[in-house]
Amino acid sequence: MAWNKVAVIGAALINFGELFDQSYEHMAAGAFQAACGAVDKGFDPTQVEAAFVATQRGTLWGQEGIAGNTVPSAIGLAGIPCTRIENACPSGSDAFRVGAMAVASGVHEVVLVIGVEKMRDKSTEEGLLSRAAAGHPIFTRGETAPVLFAPFATRHMHEFGTTREMLASVAVKNHYNGARDPYAHFRNEITIDDVLNSPPVCTPLHLLDCCPQTDGASAVLLVSAERATEFTDSPVFVAGFGVATDHPYLHEKSTFTSLTATVTAAERAYKMAGIGPADIDCAEVHDCFTITEILDIEDLGFVEKGKGGIASLDGETSLTGRIPVNTSGGLLAKGHPIGATGVAQITECWWQLRGEAGERQVATRNGFALQHNVGGRGSGVSVVNILTTNR
Question: Within the chain, what is the greatest distance between any pair of CA atoms?
């Protein structure tokens, strides 16, 4: 049974990139102001009753107490309830889910969900991401994000004949889309040869198989479905969502050709929305590496298991393909400011469903868009949100 108790009335993001000239709070304020400006019939910021802030700033920077409680003041709403949500790479996705539940419960009628992250002010050598993914000192020795995902690529290649060209086709497609996204970190098109010849990172992944570290912020405004028409004549509703977890260490995994948390989260989201994968018009999925998108489109049910590489190479996930994926450019081109990523993906889905994606616009015949993140230690958590124009 479709949920549809909550509407998205405004969504926006700031330009992603290396934003050394902007503070954490400055980025948050820019995203909030842009989201308010995106509301068709106008929006008074003081109508926001509560905020949910997605960020890994505490984990990344060692400032656990600052991240959430500085945002209300920075955006001119000091005094409102504000909750910081950190759930690894799906932090923004989960903040959206929690914000939707706050509205659906009747506790709040107007809620702000905002994601913000500063990734570039510190270097990887300072332990930025290793701190975020800290685990058992023996199990994680020498471990980096590429080290965690490379085994999935090699196993997928072994079992299904997936090639490096298939992996590279994901990066080529997403950079093509990113070149048409004015908010993307990288706006350049690349070729398969560019990917294959880029510096190796962790076999079989090369540099252009990997997403960048990026600064950015994004925001969405949620209201009860009954009040949606006060703000817009083109509301987008929350049709369903799902969250699931998996074992955090590689030696505990039951498979290296699937991210099982994604499979379960998707099942829950589809059930709540009352639809199946075939009903989705477009999707923003987690492509921290090229292999991740291939796993995603299989785990989300868009293609048969083992066929993700072929589908990517054949253009099934392109802007004009059967199921357009990562029309924004994805994490590979748009960037991955962790807390902001999921909220930015929601924004892209909102634009697509409203026909406002410009050069990236795809056909939305069924009126459904899906947003997905997976992450945490060993891809141990996944969140799927489904939006719709169908009331």
Answer: 56
Domain boundaries, the chain: 6-125+210-388
pTM of the model: 0.95
CA distance 128 to 107: 36
Q: The dihedral of CA 333, 334, 338, 342: what is its sign?
A: negative
Q: Is 89 a catalytic residue?
A: yes
> pLDDT grade, residue 365 (50/70/90)?
very high
Minimum mean pLDDT range among 87-101, 116-130, 245-259, 355-369: 116-130
Per annotation, catalytic residue among 89, 202, 210, 211: 89
Cβ–Cβ contacts within 10 Å for residue 78, how many? 12
User: Is there a catalytic annotation at residue 108?
Assistant: no
Q: Pick from 347, 338, 239, 289: which is nearest to 2 by CA? A: 239
Query: What CATH number does the domain located at 6-125+210-388 have?
Result: 3.40.47.10
**Among residues 156, 175, 185, 336, which one is catalytic?**
336
CA distance to 35, 44, 87, 188, 253, per residue, from 256 (Å): 39, 49, 22, 32, 7
